[in-house]
Amino acid sequence: MTGPADQPAPEKRTRSLTGFYVAVCVVIALGLFGGWFWKTWTVWWFDAAEAQRRQAEASAQLGLPVEKVIDLGGGVKLELVLIPAGRFRMGDQAGQDEDAGHQWVLITKPFYIGKYEVTQEVWEKVMGTNPSGFKGAKNPVESVSWDGCQEFLKKLNALPHPYPSPFGRGSKGEGLFRLPTEAEWEWACRAGTRTRFCFGGEESGLADYGWYDGNSGRTTHPVGAKKPNAWGLYDCHGNVWEWCGDWYHEYSQGWWPKVDPTGPVTGDHRVLRGESWLCIARGCRSACRVNDACPVLFSGILGFRLVASSSRTP
Asked: Which of 22, 112, 266, 267 has the greatest CB tally within 10 Å of its CB?
């Protein structure tokens, strides 16, 4: 028979069970943390179907259309696309390109961005002149400086009622048109991708999406002639470089994302994105940026795209 001396001590048995439960809890916690960590750091990497789902969701929550057309009169229109908020790694993704570094970015509010680069007919409607060297009503306006873009924006935003803004006009510049921040531009261009281009990683596909030195004939082309990215934006690669609102700065690398970054408050050079008809295929990557463009610079390769944003969140 088994005597009392042969029975395991209750205290030891309790400690053993406690250690087992602690171990199980630790494993579960690590699993949950690992799932959260993986989702957090890969959630922005999505396909065209997910991009369109996110657009539709933001549209429904805001009560705004995915695409907005603003009539400037005389048959001239601005066409805009709603871009949802999101989080992504901005810059070189795989350490394989010369673009220096990357930074995590959080875009907290949806915004409208031009479906196309600003065309010559839109510029002429607002400004009354056309500075472009490669004439064509539907071609992107070029030979415009960053400072020149600011004059255009002032006149566009001063147009009388009905206001040409998808959000209407609020206080502190809300709803007014402006240049995109560099972060907004890349988030809009990538449309969820982590590849070199918005369509994938191979240069051979660029001819279907943009005008560059391999197919441009050394001139600009009418906007919208190539395929759009997953969010419905055209000519994000090539045709003309696009001015951004930021002063150029080096990326601030780290674990925590920059929230709605706008760049430094002062500087010498503004940022250009998207490359142009003059550039080689490899240069038209989503991450490619120019760091030496002074605000008064103008050239037949320089244009821009509009953005309008609001404080409204879904």
From this structure: 112
